[in-house]
Write a structure and sequence with these properties.
Elements: H1 6-11, H2 13-16, H3 42-53, H4 76-85, E1 86-87, E2 96-97, H5 105-119, H6 128-137, H7 147-159
Antiparallel strand pairs: 1-2
Helix pairs in contact: 3-5, 4-6, 5-6
The structure holds heme C.
Length: 166
């Protein structure tokens, strides 16, 4: 029996991160424990989403919604909760559970900026500090987000006074 040379096993790492069911016999490292010790490209970070939302962000008809044109994509206050805990509207046959612990704050910011560059180029960039602030504000929440909760978050946002009336 031949063992995989260690270098080859390392080269396969990014592929293993992509999906839950890997056919490789190499034991899969836990991505949840050490996000800070790796450097993944946005493309590699997006592998977590790609299986369902597609390489072009177009989704799968009836099953997984497109990210291109999603009304959520521009808003950190909606995207961070969705990525952390998942989303359930009941309008699609697929299921989206959360990715809490899979991404560092910096990685989630990098993933968000990359998706926006592709599918909503006029949206503002975000950063790790913003992701961290939102994550901490959500406390111990675990449940998937419902559309009405996200709508509430959005209207709370637009109700915030940006500039004081003179
Ligand atoms: C296992 C499949 C799956 C994976 C993996 C997945 N999603 Fe989803 N996602 C879904 C499904 C299904 C929905 C719709 C759920 C519903 O509406 O009930 C959804 C909804 C969304 C929405 C709301 C879109 C809209 O306009 O309604 C966003 C944003 C989103 N996902 C982003 C992501 C990101 C970013 C990732 C990667 C970190 C990801 N998803 C990974 C299946 C997935």
């Amino acid at each position: 029996m031949k063992l995989l040379p260690p270098l080859l096993a390392l080269a396969a790492l990014p592929l293993l991160l992509g999906c839950g069911s890997s056919s490789s016999p190499t034991p899969q490292p836990s991505t949840a424990t050490a996000p800070a010790q790796r450097h993944l490209s946005p493309e590699q970070l997006y592998l977590q989403c790609r299986a369902c939302h597609g390489a072009d962000g177009l989704g799968v008809s009836g099953i997984n919604p497109p990210l291109q044109g999603s009304p959520y994509l521009d808003h950190d206050e909606l995207m961070v909760p969705i990525i952390l805990h998942g989303y359930r509207s009941g309008q699609w046959n697929g299921v989206m559970t959360g990715f809490a612990g899979r991404y560092s704050d910096e990685e989630m910011a990098r993933l968000l900026n990359w998706m926006r560059q592709r599918w909503s180029p006029t949206a503002a960039d975000t950063d790790a500090a913003t992701v961290r602030r939102i994550r901490l504000s959500l406390g111990n929440r675990r449940a998937q987000w419902r559309p009405d909760e996200l709508r509430e978050r959005l209207s709370a946002l637009s109700a915030e006074p940006e500039a004081k009336e003179p």
